[in-house]
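Run log, item B.
One chain of 273 residues. Sequence copied directly from the ordering sheet:
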Amino acid sequence: MPASSGQQASAIEAKGFPNLPRVHWTERYFRLVWGAVGIVGCLLLWQLGSSTGVFDPLFVSSPLEVLRTAVLLLPSPEFLGHLFITSQCLFLGLSIALVVGVLVGLPIGWFPRLNATFEPVIAAVYGVPYIAFLPVIIMWTGIGMTSRVIIVFWSALFPLIINSIQGARGVDDNFLRVGRSFSATNFQMFLTITLPSSVPYILAGLRTSIGRAIVGVVVAEFFMSSKGLGYFINLKANALEMAPAFVAIVLLALFGIALVSLVTYIENRFCNW
Protein backbone atom coordinates (compact mmCIF):
# COMPACT_ATOMS: atom_id res chain seq x y z
CA MET A 1 0.00 0.00 0.00
CA PRO A 2 1.56 3.35 -1.00
CA ALA A 3 2.56 5.61 1.83
CA SER A 4 0.44 8.67 2.50
CA SER A 5 1.79 12.22 2.19
CA GLY A 6 2.05 12.44 5.97
CA GLN A 7 4.06 9.22 6.14
CA GLN A 8 6.35 10.44 3.33
CA ALA A 9 6.91 13.70 5.15
CA SER A 10 7.67 11.86 8.39
CA ALA A 11 10.13 9.58 6.60
CA ILE A 12 11.91 12.49 4.97
CA GLU A 13 12.01 14.39 8.24
CA ALA A 14 13.36 11.33 10.08
CA LYS A 15 15.97 10.61 7.45
CA GLY A 16 16.87 14.25 6.78
CA PHE A 17 18.93 15.64 4.00
CA PRO A 18 22.65 14.87 4.05
CA ASN A 19 24.52 17.53 5.97
CA LEU A 20 27.70 19.05 4.65
CA PRO A 21 30.52 19.17 7.19
CA ARG A 22 30.49 22.31 9.25
CA VAL A 23 33.52 24.52 9.50
CA HIS A 24 34.96 23.69 12.93
CA TRP A 25 35.84 26.58 15.23
CA THR A 26 39.51 25.50 15.22
CA GLU A 27 39.63 25.90 11.43
CA ARG A 28 38.12 29.37 11.71
CA TYR A 29 40.67 30.24 14.40
CA PHE A 30 43.42 28.88 12.14
CA ARG A 31 42.26 31.10 9.25
CA LEU A 32 42.03 34.12 11.53
CA VAL A 33 45.55 33.63 12.89
CA TRP A 34 47.12 33.14 9.48
CA GLY A 35 45.18 36.07 8.07
CA ALA A 36 46.61 38.24 10.83
CA VAL A 37 50.09 36.84 10.11
CA GLY A 38 49.71 37.80 6.45
CA ILE A 39 48.69 41.38 7.30
CA VAL A 40 51.49 41.80 9.83
CA GLY A 41 53.98 40.37 7.33
CA CYS A 42 52.91 42.88 4.67
CA LEU A 43 53.25 45.74 7.17
CA LEU A 44 56.74 44.58 8.15
CA LEU A 45 57.81 44.37 4.51
CA TRP A 46 56.35 47.84 3.93
CA GLN A 47 58.26 49.23 6.91
CA LEU A 48 61.45 47.45 5.83
CA GLY A 49 61.16 48.88 2.33
CA SER A 50 60.66 52.37 3.74
CA SER A 51 63.56 52.06 6.19
CA THR A 52 66.02 50.76 3.59
CA GLY A 53 65.10 53.33 0.95
CA VAL A 54 63.46 50.87 -1.44
CA PHE A 55 60.36 53.06 -1.31
CA ASP A 56 60.85 56.74 -2.02
CA PRO A 57 59.53 58.60 1.08
CA LEU A 58 58.30 61.36 -1.20
CA PHE A 59 55.73 58.98 -2.67
CA VAL A 60 55.34 56.16 -0.12
CA SER A 61 55.07 56.94 3.59
CA SER A 62 56.21 54.35 6.11
CA PRO A 63 53.64 52.50 8.26
CA LEU A 64 54.90 54.25 11.39
CA GLU A 65 54.46 57.65 9.78
CA VAL A 66 51.00 56.67 8.58
CA LEU A 67 50.13 55.56 12.12
CA ARG A 68 51.33 58.84 13.62
CA THR A 69 49.35 60.78 11.03
CA ALA A 70 46.24 58.68 11.68
CA VAL A 71 46.36 59.46 15.40
CA LEU A 72 46.28 63.17 14.56
CA LEU A 73 43.87 62.93 11.64
CA LEU A 74 41.12 60.60 12.87
CA PRO A 75 39.73 62.94 15.57
CA SER A 76 39.50 65.76 13.01
CA PRO A 77 35.86 66.73 12.24
CA GLU A 78 36.81 67.48 8.64
CA PHE A 79 38.29 64.02 8.10
CA LEU A 80 35.37 62.35 9.87
CA GLY A 81 33.08 64.21 7.46
CA HIS A 82 34.95 62.71 4.49
CA LEU A 83 34.70 59.29 6.12
CA PHE A 84 30.97 59.63 6.71
CA ILE A 85 30.27 60.71 3.11
CA THR A 86 32.17 57.75 1.69
CA SER A 87 30.55 55.28 4.11
CA GLN A 88 27.08 56.58 3.29
CA CYS A 89 27.64 56.39 -0.46
CA LEU A 90 29.22 52.94 -0.24
CA PHE A 91 26.52 51.33 1.89
CA LEU A 92 23.65 52.88 -0.05
CA GLY A 93 25.00 51.76 -3.43
CA LEU A 94 25.96 48.30 -2.19
CA SER A 95 22.61 47.72 -0.47
CA ILE A 96 20.62 48.72 -3.55
CA ALA A 97 22.86 46.54 -5.75
CA LEU A 98 22.28 43.55 -3.44
CA VAL A 99 18.49 43.89 -3.59
CA VAL A 100 18.33 44.55 -7.34
CA GLY A 101 20.94 41.90 -8.17
CA VAL A 102 19.02 39.18 -6.33
CA LEU A 103 15.60 40.26 -7.64
CA VAL A 104 16.91 40.30 -11.22
CA GLY A 105 19.26 37.32 -11.11
CA LEU A 106 17.11 34.67 -9.42
CA PRO A 107 14.17 34.86 -11.90
CA ILE A 108 16.58 34.84 -14.84
CA GLY A 109 18.23 31.70 -13.48
CA TRP A 110 14.91 30.07 -12.57
CA PHE A 111 13.09 30.56 -15.90
CA PRO A 112 14.97 29.12 -18.91
CA ARG A 113 13.42 31.56 -21.41
CA LEU A 114 14.49 34.57 -19.36
CA ASN A 115 17.94 33.03 -19.07
CA ALA A 116 18.24 32.55 -22.81
CA THR A 117 17.00 36.10 -23.45
CA PHE A 118 19.03 38.09 -20.94
CA GLU A 119 22.26 36.12 -20.44
CA PRO A 120 23.90 37.52 -23.64
CA VAL A 121 22.85 41.05 -22.67
CA ILE A 122 24.33 40.68 -19.17
CA ALA A 123 27.56 39.22 -20.58
CA ALA A 124 27.88 42.13 -23.04
CA VAL A 125 27.24 44.87 -20.47
CA TYR A 126 29.44 43.19 -17.85
CA GLY A 127 32.31 43.17 -20.32
CA VAL A 128 32.28 46.98 -20.54
CA PRO A 129 34.36 48.65 -17.77
CA TYR A 130 31.95 50.40 -15.47
CA ILE A 131 34.15 53.51 -15.49
CA ALA A 132 33.12 53.93 -19.14
CA PHE A 133 29.59 54.74 -17.97
CA LEU A 134 30.85 57.63 -15.83
CA PRO A 135 30.26 60.41 -18.43
CA VAL A 136 26.78 59.06 -19.20
CA ILE A 137 25.82 59.00 -15.52
CA ILE A 138 27.10 62.55 -15.06
CA MET A 139 25.02 63.71 -18.04
CA TRP A 140 21.91 62.03 -16.67
CA THR A 141 22.15 62.90 -12.97
CA GLY A 142 24.74 65.68 -12.69
CA ILE A 143 27.47 65.77 -10.07
CA GLY A 144 26.26 64.95 -6.59
CA MET A 145 25.37 62.22 -4.15
CA THR A 146 22.94 60.55 -6.54
CA SER A 147 25.52 60.09 -9.28
CA ARG A 148 28.07 58.67 -6.84
CA VAL A 149 25.57 56.17 -5.44
CA ILE A 150 24.69 55.11 -9.00
CA ILE A 151 28.38 54.50 -9.76
CA VAL A 152 28.74 52.33 -6.64
CA PHE A 153 25.50 50.52 -7.49
CA TRP A 154 26.60 49.85 -11.07
CA SER A 155 30.06 48.73 -9.93
CA ALA A 156 28.62 46.15 -7.53
CA LEU A 157 25.57 44.99 -9.49
CA PHE A 158 26.73 42.43 -12.02
CA PRO A 159 28.60 39.96 -9.77
CA LEU A 160 25.40 39.74 -7.72
CA ILE A 161 23.23 39.18 -10.80
CA ILE A 162 25.57 36.56 -12.26
CA ASN A 163 25.95 34.66 -8.98
CA SER A 164 22.20 34.78 -8.35
CA ILE A 165 21.63 33.28 -11.80
CA GLN A 166 24.13 30.51 -11.07
CA GLY A 167 22.53 29.88 -7.69
CA ALA A 168 19.07 29.47 -9.20
CA ARG A 169 20.41 27.20 -11.96
CA GLY A 170 22.45 25.10 -9.54
CA VAL A 171 19.60 23.86 -7.33
CA ASP A 172 19.80 20.11 -6.70
CA ASP A 173 17.19 18.31 -8.83
CA ASN A 174 16.49 15.92 -5.95
CA PHE A 175 15.17 18.83 -3.87
CA LEU A 176 12.92 19.91 -6.73
CA ARG A 177 11.57 16.37 -7.15
CA VAL A 178 10.75 16.24 -3.43
CA GLY A 179 8.90 19.55 -3.77
CA ARG A 180 6.91 18.30 -6.76
CA SER A 181 6.05 15.05 -4.93
CA PHE A 182 4.23 17.20 -2.37
CA SER A 183 2.42 19.14 -5.13
CA ALA A 184 4.31 22.36 -4.38
CA THR A 185 3.73 25.16 -6.86
CA ASN A 186 6.61 26.74 -8.77
CA PHE A 187 6.35 29.82 -6.56
CA GLN A 188 6.47 27.71 -3.38
CA MET A 189 9.52 25.81 -4.64
CA PHE A 190 11.16 29.10 -5.59
CA LEU A 191 10.69 30.49 -2.07
CA THR A 192 11.46 27.35 -0.08
CA ILE A 193 14.09 25.62 -2.23
CA THR A 194 15.63 27.89 -4.85
CA LEU A 195 16.06 30.99 -2.71
CA PRO A 196 17.69 29.24 0.30
CA SER A 197 19.91 27.14 -1.99
CA SER A 198 21.09 30.30 -3.77
CA VAL A 199 22.20 32.12 -0.62
CA PRO A 200 25.83 30.81 -0.72
CA TYR A 201 26.12 31.92 -4.35
CA ILE A 202 24.68 35.34 -3.51
CA LEU A 203 27.12 35.79 -0.62
CA ALA A 204 30.03 34.81 -2.87
CA GLY A 205 28.89 37.44 -5.35
CA LEU A 206 28.58 39.97 -2.53
CA ARG A 207 32.22 39.42 -1.55
CA THR A 208 33.28 40.26 -5.10
CA SER A 209 30.91 43.22 -5.21
CA ILE A 210 32.38 44.75 -2.04
CA GLY A 211 35.77 45.27 -3.67
CA ARG A 212 34.21 46.64 -6.85
CA ALA A 213 31.99 48.99 -4.83
CA ILE A 214 34.98 50.41 -2.94
CA VAL A 215 36.78 51.04 -6.22
CA GLY A 216 33.62 52.63 -7.59
CA VAL A 217 33.15 55.03 -4.69
CA VAL A 218 36.79 56.14 -4.82
CA VAL A 219 36.68 56.75 -8.58
CA ALA A 220 33.38 58.60 -8.25
CA GLU A 221 34.81 60.85 -5.54
CA PHE A 222 37.94 61.47 -7.60
CA PHE A 223 35.91 63.09 -10.38
CA MET A 224 32.47 63.92 -9.01
CA SER A 225 32.85 65.22 -5.48
CA SER A 226 34.49 67.75 -3.21
CA LYS A 227 33.99 65.44 -0.22
CA GLY A 228 34.77 61.84 0.67
CA LEU A 229 37.88 59.72 1.08
CA GLY A 230 38.43 59.49 -2.69
CA TYR A 231 38.47 63.27 -2.97
CA PHE A 232 40.72 63.45 0.10
CA ILE A 233 43.23 60.97 -1.38
CA ASN A 234 43.32 62.85 -4.68
CA LEU A 235 43.75 66.20 -2.92
CA LYS A 236 46.58 65.05 -0.66
CA ALA A 237 48.39 63.04 -3.36
CA ASN A 238 48.43 66.05 -5.68
CA ALA A 239 49.97 68.07 -2.87
CA LEU A 240 52.49 65.23 -2.21
CA GLU A 241 51.15 64.86 1.34
CA MET A 242 51.33 61.10 1.17
CA ALA A 243 50.90 60.17 4.83
CA PRO A 244 47.31 61.54 5.05
CA ALA A 245 46.54 59.93 1.68
CA PHE A 246 47.78 56.56 2.97
CA VAL A 247 45.63 56.94 6.09
CA ALA A 248 42.56 57.15 3.85
CA ILE A 249 43.80 54.23 1.72
CA VAL A 250 44.31 52.06 4.81
CA LEU A 251 40.82 52.95 6.04
CA LEU A 252 39.34 51.86 2.71
CA ALA A 253 41.25 48.59 3.00
CA LEU A 254 39.87 48.11 6.52
CA PHE A 255 36.38 48.76 5.14
CA GLY A 256 36.89 45.94 2.67
CA ILE A 257 38.30 43.54 5.25
CA ALA A 258 35.48 44.24 7.70
CA LEU A 259 32.71 43.82 5.13
CA VAL A 260 34.17 40.65 3.60
CA SER A 261 34.72 39.21 7.10
CA LEU A 262 31.09 39.97 7.96
CA VAL A 263 29.86 38.20 4.82
CA THR A 264 32.13 35.21 5.55
CA TYR A 265 30.82 35.03 9.13
CA ILE A 266 27.22 35.05 7.90
CA GLU A 267 28.04 32.32 5.38
CA ASN A 268 29.77 30.12 7.96
CA ARG A 269 27.05 30.73 10.54
CA PHE A 270 23.93 30.23 8.46
CA CYS A 271 24.88 28.45 5.22
CA ASN A 272 26.31 25.13 6.39
CA TRP A 273 23.97 22.93 4.42
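Observations after the first pass:
- The mean pLDDT is 82.
- Residues 22 and 143 are 48 Å apart (CA to CA).
Flagged for discussion on Thursday.
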